[in-house]
Amino acid sequence: MAASPVPVASSAKALGEQKVLVIMARFPDVEPGFSIEEMRGKYFDKLDRYLRAASYGKARVTGKMTDWRTLPHPVRHYRISQHNLSVERDRVLELIQDAADLVDNDEDFSRYSMIFLSLGAKRTDYGMAGLCGYPGMLGWRSELLLKTRKKRQTLPVGVAIYCEEAHVGVVFHDMAHIMGGVQGGRRLVPCLYDHDLQGQSGPFRNYAQFYLVHLGYFDPMSCHMFIADQGPPGPCAWTKLRLGWIEPQKVLTVPRGKSSRVVLGPLGRETSEALVVKLPLDSATYYLVENRQPFGPDRNLPSHGVLISLCDDQVIECRRGQSPVKLMNANPSTPELRGAPFTLKGKKEFQDSKRRILVRVVGRKADACEIEVSNGK
Fold first, then answer.
1. Which of 1, 216, 285, 308 is the most buried (most CB within 10 A)?
2. Residues 170, 291 within the same domain
3. Are residues 38 and 133 in the same domain?
4. Boundaries of domain holding 95
5. Count of structural domains within the chain
6. 349-352 and 357-365: which strand pairing?
């Protein structure tokens, strides 16, 4: 899905306190398998630690959890398709409406940045482990103008729904949609997996390898997690830029016709003098170069080194083989983009001969990588 080139600014919503109301919603015919305290640990302990680390301390999670509230219908009434493009939007909308009405008398929705519906049910009961209602399954072309039935309170412009086994990476993925918000008729932080492949059966978690064609395991907007019992990977530079977490002075831009030699610090460490190298191609397309090393959330990656991504701001969502950001793969023989980084001891050089782009790893200084870049020279 593409649009005419438009300037894409970073989100202002992803900075500071993210105040979340977690509505603990159970179904009359399903017994929850997790306690409220266990869910509190996920939403307000694990998620907060991850968010602070990934954002360099620029974002944090606060908020409140309700007690259990029982929805008016059994789970089959709300059950949705497991495939994004086939999700029954009316059922998503009804679930959000019914859950909000359950706490209408007790909560002031204007105090919160977003709502999480934490369902006392498993993915196999409901249909998906997690999803973003808005901006997501209910669209993003206009705001979610949903009001409670009794007090006519307006819901926050951001609602996500999670089953009880949803991984922290799933929670962050949908939360990032909300933090990114909507700009110019697009989600600023879209899914970075392929929606069309997500609707097809295959050998990867019963799907086609929809997580693994654009960013692989190098961003939770692509994969949610690499290994299920570990935390999610850190976001890539593209996602961090969209969320406003990288200071402009940490981005070194090498204009067309120029070359440069750069010591690129690890993306996971804000104190790095340079976090990203940007190689503009035209008004909408560019390469990003980042250094991913094994600490913080980036411990949970399949491999480490210099990642190179081709970005296109004309692309809105990952449909029909397109993606707004796509990794250049240093080792195509390694499956699932697991060997994508360029390294001093492995494949050192990337070339795009058509665009006259060169990126070469030439040295290491502790956990920093020294690279040479040429942008069309």
1. 216
2. no
3. yes
4. 16-189
5. 2
6. antiparallel
Distance CA 51, CA 44 (A): 10
Residue type, 148: T
Beta strands in the chain (DSSP E): 16-26, 59-65, 69-70, 114-119, 130-134, 159-162, 182-183, 186-187, 251-253, 258-264, 276-280, 285-292, 305-312, 325-327, 349-352, 357-365, 368-375
Same domain as 129, residue 275:
no
Are both 254 and 166 inside the same structural domain?
Answer: no
Asked whether residue 61 falls in the same domain as residue 159, the answer is yes
CB contact at 8 A, 102 and 68:
no
The answer to whether residue 232 sits within a structural domain is no
Same structural domain, 261 and 163: no
- Same structural domain, 47 and 175: yes
Cα 304 from chain centre: 20
pLDDT, position 5: 44
Residue with token string 């939770």 = 220
- Residues with Cβ within 8 Å of 14's Cβ and at least 6 positions away in sequence, in order, are 55, 58, 59, 176, 179, 180, 243, 244, 245
Structure tokens at 61: 């999670």
The CATH number covering residue 100 comes to 3.40.390
The owner of tokens 């040479």 is: 372
For 214: left if phi > 0, alpha if psi spans -120 to 50, otherwise beta; the answer is alpha
Q: End-to-end alpha-carbon separation of the chain, Å?
A: 32
Q: Are residues 245 and 353 located together in one domain of the fold?
A: yes
Closest CA to 282 of 321, 260, 312: 312
Digit-by-digit pLDDT tens for the chain (377 residues) are 444 445 567 788 999 999 999 999 999 999 999 999 999 999 999 999 999 999 999 999 999 999 999 999 999 999 998 887 788 999 999 999 999 999 999 999 999 999 999 999 999 999 999 999 999 999 887 777 889 999 999 999 999 999 999 999 999 999 999 999 998 889 999 999 887 776 666 665 555 565 678 999 999 999 888 888 899 999 999 999 999 999 999 999 999 999 999 999 999 999 999 999 999 999 999 999 999 999 999 999 999 999 999 999 999 998 888 999 999 999 999 988 999 999 999 999 999 999 999 999 999 999 999 999 999 97
Rounded to whole angstroms, how far apart are CA atoms 252 and 277?
5
DSSP characters for 191-206?
--S-HHHHTS--SBTT
